[in-house]
């Protein structure tokens, strides 16, 4: 593939990741009512593992027969463990926010993830965004905030923005940002170990991260829930859908992290909000408000700019 083609290959990979994640979220929402929030979260990891393993084996089977298993370093495993931990921590923060009165404010503040990714990427990975990229991130973030702002009755109260819910929202965004940094750091490290294929890098990252998450979360749920893991095995049909689409989304995200900087990937990944909005609005059967239209336009402008800045 030409250098120009490879340079922009991360764009369709991220778009696919966002679309697959939208399907996974839709499946998980229906699953949550059946098995509970935490078990439904485990499903994306546990049921996604077989698909990640099959994908990795297929890459080795279809690729160069002389490919050897990578020699994983402690640094690589540390980056992946960091990402896996903070991904679960972000979910926990969101769950705690759900118990609070001003949950809508928490969701809004969690959308600051992209700006936090840019900050952490500069601090830990020394990946500094260009001025155009920074503008794109700000525009996209403002757009998504306009789409997710809570009702005015909640918005213009001091207690809403100083509550536990708002703190949980910021923590949730920070944890998702740190998870992204961990996975991007792992992609950079495994490239140093000789795995130059972004597809192999993504496959190994997902398999290792989801193995860690499945073991830890599975043990926790088995110990703390009365029925243990039985409910998610009974709901295997919808769990398979959520797990397969979750694996597809994760494989695409990890592959994109091996191709492009964390901040750019997560900014373009905000297109998921547009996909989710289309689903929630039933393909725009309900009219968008003026603020929602403006928010959507700012988001799309930011997403176009993040692609053009490369």
List the helices and strands and how they pair.
Layout: H1 3-8, H2 10-35, H3 37-46, H4 49-62, H5 74-98, H6 103-110, H7 113-125, H8 131-148, H9 152-155, H10 158-161, H11 164-192, H12 198-224, H13 230-234, H14 236-259, H15 262-268, H16 271-280, H17 290-308
Helix pairs in contact: 2-3, 2-14, 2-16, 3-12, 3-14, 4-12, 5-11, 5-12, 6-11, 7-11, 7-15, 8-17, 11-12, 11-14, 12-14
Any idea what the shape is? globular
How many domain regions? 1
The main β sheet shows up as: none
Distance between the termini: 18 Å
Mean pLDDT: 85
| Overall strand count | 0
Strand proportion, as a percent range, falls in under 5%
The low-confidence parts are none
Fraction of helical residues? over 70%
Order of helices and strands: HHHHHHHHHHHHHHHHH
Q: How many DSSP H or I helices?
A: 17
**Class derived from helix and strand content:** mainly alpha
Radius of gyration using CA atoms only: 19 Å
Describe the structure.
The protein has 310 residues and is mainly α. It has one domain (3-308). Helices cover 80% and strands 0% of the residues. It is globular and about 55 Å long. The relative contact order is 0.21. The mean pLDDT is 85.
Give a summary of the structure in a few sentences.
It is built from 17 helices and no strands. It is mainly α and 310 residues long.
For the structure shown, list the relevant keywords.
single chain; mainly alpha; 17 helices; 0% strand; globular
